[in-house]
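Reopening this ticket.

The earlier resolution said the output was attached, but the attachment link was broken on my side. Pasting everything inline this time so it's all in one place.
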Amino acid sequence: MRDRYNDAANPSAPWYTIPPTLVVGVEHPCLITKIAKAIDTLGGPSTLEKLVGDKPAYVEANLHLHPGDRNAKPIASFNSKTNNVLLKITLPKRTGRKRKKGSDDAWQHVPEAHASKTILLSDPLDARHLCQSMQDNPNRYVVEPLGTIKQTHRFRRKR
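Inline output:
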């Protein structure tokens, strides 16, 4: 939701309104392919409700890498206060075409028939690919702020 656009009269970056939604971040150390299994490693839905409730408490979460194994020790989270913004970036669908070897130029012809696609957590894109795709399509991506991340749970082993 843009408030102001970048144009010739106003050369600054666009401004966005951040909705008042509070988000709790969890930096899970594993590659997530099944959401239900990731929730189980964090202690199940009841534990997540405590973490992301109406008034999220600054408690630690335990990560069980092997939820069924009673001998496996859980990893405690380090709960840190943060002040970040969660963004939803919608990019044009990838066409599967490649650039010429050694060229950083944008693709010349991208058919309009390809619809936009929201990048999900399961998509194998890292920050470099995301930035490159945004540079290739400067007028075709959409940025939408979803909320403010006030606390983040990070899992670190104690030494």
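Reporter confirms the inline version is readable. The two ends are 45 Å apart (CA to CA). The beta strands are 2-4, 15-16, 22-27, 62-63, 75-92, 116-118, 142-155.
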